[in-house]
Amino acid sequence: MTKKERYEKVLDWFRKNMKLAETELDYSSHFQLLVAVILSAQCTDKRVNIITPALFHDYPDAETMSKASPEVLFEYIKSCTYPNNKSKHLANMARMLMEKHNGIVPDDVEELQRLPGVGRKTAHVIAAVLFRQPKMPVDTHVFRVSARIGLSTNAKTVLQTEKQLVKYIPPEDIPDAHHWLILHGRYVCTARSPKCTSCGISEFCKFYQQNDKR
Fold it and tell me: Is 26 a known active-site residue?
């Protein structure tokens, strides 16, 4: 099976079997998703969703959050990873968003990455989820699953994985493919004990083919 054929078969399966492809982060505005994604760095979506209701109740937009100090925001997010850094990022991000963008989340990835706490992956999540741009955020799930299936080959960094994925995935599928791979990695192709025998794409998967003991 060629790499192109593998991509076609895997993507076709996802299109047919994972029609609901969306983030598991809870949000009700562009700003709130940006906050949630910043908080999700090295933290589970489940934990972020526990934190954000109270935070969004008191600071629902950039204007209100821009007036909060990092010390105040820390009390809302202290149960997530790296709360000291993230509280500073959120306060400074909201202020810059007000000063440079009138409180509106920009759709340009370069502008997004100028915001405190926003790196390449976060910017690509915002661009893909909110604006349906063909940007492929690569987290640990996407990195692992892509390598196992055989969508990426000898990729040592997330950027190398990203470049291989966007080369073969049609631009219109990239925003959904990001979620397909994350959700597949979160619930089926788990880091430990992947559920290969119940996986719908096992027949196209390099990992399964190499480890099938039947």
Answer: no
